[in-house]
Amino acid sequence: MKYAEVIGDPIAQSKSPAIHGFWLTALGIDAQYRAMQVSAEGLGDYFAERRADSDWLGCNITIPHKLAALDFVEDRGLVRSSIGAINTVFRDGDALVGTNTDAAGFYAPIADMDLAGQPVVVVGAGGAARAILFALSRVGVGRVTLLNRNPLKGAALLASFGLNGDALKLDAPVPPAALLVNASSLGMVGQPPLDLDLSALPDDAVVYDVVYAPLGTGLLKAARDRDLDTVDGLEMLIGQAALAFELFFSAAPPRERDDELRALLT
């Protein structure tokens, strides 16, 4: 049977099998979508084995492989020199091709926001942050404050996307911003919490957390306590998954059933 899967380490928290499984059943497609734990040391062997398996249609990629996976696949869209990380690999004949659906998946829920020239705060500097900064650079945001454990890495990341702003340590005060995005794993089950003081954010700010396990993160609870608009991790997860689903299974997922899918996932 044809199949696709999601890889990462850890992987038990992934909701991708439930999302793709829901769409496969809804469309009556005879295929599977699985979860596979793959260590950093085993990444090369994983792609070699899947390349030889004609039933394998591709994979989604989560922490910590979004950067390293680029070394094992074709980069036809020049993702390495733009976003610098991939979250999806699909088969094209005998070739394995890497791409990134995170940027579009991230931006879709906030596409109606006028972010041109507006200040933004981003937490994190990993693969998800790269996709998010890429998307923000394309809509012409104003100054970006990047909070990260390593400010030097954060500064280099801002420069790579041509963004003006400041790279600061995680415990730096949150400045006023139109949008605050947690692009890190902080707040995820099994990870340290993300404890930010949101008092400087204006009343019309939006707080966006890409973490989806748990769905009600501490950051989103703090934002809702202030009656700020929020976007949870399922929005980006479902959005990026829909683009990957078409690459794997050559069919558009039934997005008109998103409310039903969200209910299943929560």
Compact description:
It contains eight helices and eleven strands. It is an alpha/beta fold and 266 residues long.
CATH top level assignment of the largest domain: Alpha Beta
How many helices does DSSP assign? 8
Q: Give the low-confidence spans.
A: none
Mean pLDDT score, rounded?
96
Biggest sheet features: 6 strands, parallel
Strand % is: 15-25%
Helix content: 25-40%
Strand ordering within the main sheet:
8-7-6-9-10-11
Description:
It is a single chain. This protein has 266 residues and is α/β, with parallel strands linked by helices. It has two domains: 3-99 and 235-265, Rossmann fold, CATH 3.40.50; 104-231, Rossmann fold, CATH 3.40.50.720. It is 31% helix and 19% strand. The strands form two sheets. A six-stranded parallel beta sheet has the order 8-7-6-9-10-11, with helices on both faces. The chain has a five-stranded mixed beta sheet with strand order 2-1-3-4-5, sandwiched between helices. α1 (16-27) links the parallel β1 and β2. The model has no long low-confidence stretch (mean pLDDT 96).
Give descriptors for this structure:
single chain; alpha/beta; Rossmann fold; five-stranded mixed beta sheet; 31% helix
Q: How is the topology of this model organized?
A:
Blueprint: E1 3-8, H1 16-27, E2 32-37, H2 43-51, E3 56-61, E4 88-92, E5 95-99, H3 102-107, E6 120-123, H4 127-138, E7 144-147, H5 151-160, E8 165-168, E9 179-182, E10 206-209, H6 218-225, E11 229-231, H7 233-249, H8 258-265
Parallel strand pairs: 1-2, 1-3, 6-7, 6-9, 7-8, 9-10, 10-11
Antiparallel strand pairs: 3-4, 4-5
